[in-house]
Specification:
Layout lengths: L9 H4 L8 E2 L1 H4 L1 H12 L3 E6 L8 E7 L4 E7 L5 E5 L14 E3 L3 E2 L6 E2 L5 E3 L18 E7 L2 E5 L8 H11 L10 E9 L3 H7 L6 H4 L20 E4 L4 E6 L8 H9 L25 E8 L3 E6 L4 E10 L2 E10 L5 H32 L6 E2 L6 H15 L4 H4 L1
Antiparallel strand pairs: 1-19, 2-11, 3-4, 3-6, 4-5, 5-10, 7-8, 8-9, 10-11, 12-18, 13-14, 14-15, 15-16, 16-17, 17-18
Helix pairs in contact: 3-9, 7-8
Length: 408
Amino acid sequence: MDAAAGRKRWAAAYPELGTDPIPIEPYISPAYFALECANIFRRVWLNVGREEEIPHAGDHFVKEIAAAQSSVLVVRGGDGAIRAFHNMCAHRGNKVVWQDRGQCERFACTFHGWSYGLDGQLLHVPDEDQFHDLRKHELGLTPVAAALWEGFIFINLDPQPQQSLAAYLGDLGERLKGWPFAQKTACFAYRAEARCNWKVAVNAFQESYHVPFVHQRSLPDSAAGQGNPLAHPLAIILFPLHQTISIYGNPHTRLNPVDELVVRHGHSYRKRVVSQGDLPPGLNPTRQTNWGFDIDVFFPNFFMLIFGIGVYFTYNFWPVAVDRTVYEVRMYNPPPQNAGQRFALEYNRSIQKSGLTEDLATLENTQSVLASGAKKHLILQDNEIAIRHHYKVVDGLVRAPDGFGRTA
């Protein structure tokens, strides 16, 4: 691998981030968490799903965003457009849609029967003539800004977002355009609530330093090996808000007999195969032959892991409280064409689920002692610079939210 990977190169590449320890207080302070909710999660673009989840008119899902004290209804309208609304009736404030997802021609509040169209307009009020000066045209569902990028649905709870989605995603969004996300339709999803601060969860996936230690059973030598025993990243690109981290793929991974069978019939998460020809410029940016996958971090809480074998995962970390986080994982694969590929898909799913379980164990054990006061700071090494970057962006927005547009 690149000989420079063994040196402290990332601090030299991004000297403005410094090398000091970072404080623990933002991981345990309720007051700091409240500012994060107000100055970040109520103001930035948040990924809430993919458009394939609502392919037909009337298809919809509800996203609960505890950090913004909001329930958001996302729906495909009769005109094919995807829209988002606050899931709140204009009458007495009840939730209009109680189920996680569904299909309908209109939305009807179960409390008093007020009904709304797929475009959010108020259509019907029972016993309407008993209301005083009822202006139905002003009482539709409250809209939430919604936009698409490469089939991913983003929403912004700011009534007047300071940036378009394209501007917010910036160079990272441009660099990943064109990868065939929509072709990976075989999806497995997991959801867990972890007893940890959302940044503890985010930070765990911004470095590969932990891989040789945490994942000895699930992925023993896939991202580390003789040429790179401590899984140094191949490249780190830090944008004003977002990040790309290229992870090493060991070309000499030892495969067991089941792995060998999986490789013959499909692909294995333990066997890295790089196809350089069809990669957009944002993937494997340094074009390393020993590349495994990229971790693309869309601030604040959306991760995309894109592998050279043509699959990708998404992670969303949703703050619930200062010490609670909902962790959502989706694994996207090409649809299997035969029994062998189906077997490979299920085997890979079990490997990845084991890896996720290993990661979750570290998160809760970390949070359980952070508030002890035994330590006041976290010590970061050079290859953990993405954690330092995320901390700096969060802290900057917590302290100066009006600088958001300039930051991005």
